[in-house]
Amino acid sequence: MQETLERAYRNFDRLVAENPGAVSVWLSTTLSNRFLDHCRRRRTEVLGAPALRVVQDTESSGEPAALEQWEQVSREDFQRAIDKLRPPHLQEAYRLHVAGLRYRAIAQRLDAPEGTVGRWLSEARQALRGLLTPGAASSEGRARP
């Protein structure tokens, strides 16, 4: 509710010119969208929490063997894999995301559009999977974008 009111305050000049019915619809839609965003974010956090120890597997296979495989990766191996990410903006974007920054903050810091940051993070995750999967030496060339 608070985020909806903050958005309404930021858009006050535009909303004051609308009729009360349109403002009511805007407020309801914004509130619903914020709630859905919150639910999606919470679901992602809950489902992804166990996998965040190494690399979050976006496909969530649910197979115990796959999770055990990732648990075998040491912190040092993981750091070395991050250091190997190329081009360098993939490494930087991934490190910032792991540090807790959201796409918008990363985009501002790296002077890139948010969509590009999303693509970089996806490429970084894919490259890390390739580097950390057994037999990575043969797939390392494929993993680099």
From TrEMBL:
Keyword Metal-binding belongs to the record: no
Residue ranges occupied by any RNA polymerase sigma factor 70 region 4 type domain in the UniProt entry: 76-128
Residue stretches making up the RNA polymerase sigma-70 region domain: 1-43
Coiled coil (residue ranges): none
InterPro entries, per the entry: RNA_pol_sigma-70-like, RNA_pol_sigma-70_dom, RNA_pol_sigma70_r2, RNA_pol_sigma70_r4_t2, RNA_pol_sigma_r2, RNA_pol_sigma_r3/r4-like, WH-like_DNA-bd_sf
Pfam families: Sigma70_r2, Sigma70_r4_2
UniProt entry keywords in alphabetical sequence: Sigma factor, Transcription, Transcription regulation
Family statement: Belongs to the sigma-70 factor family. ECF subfamily.
Protein name: RNA polymerase sigma-70 factor, ECF subfamily
Species of provenance: Myxococcus fulvus
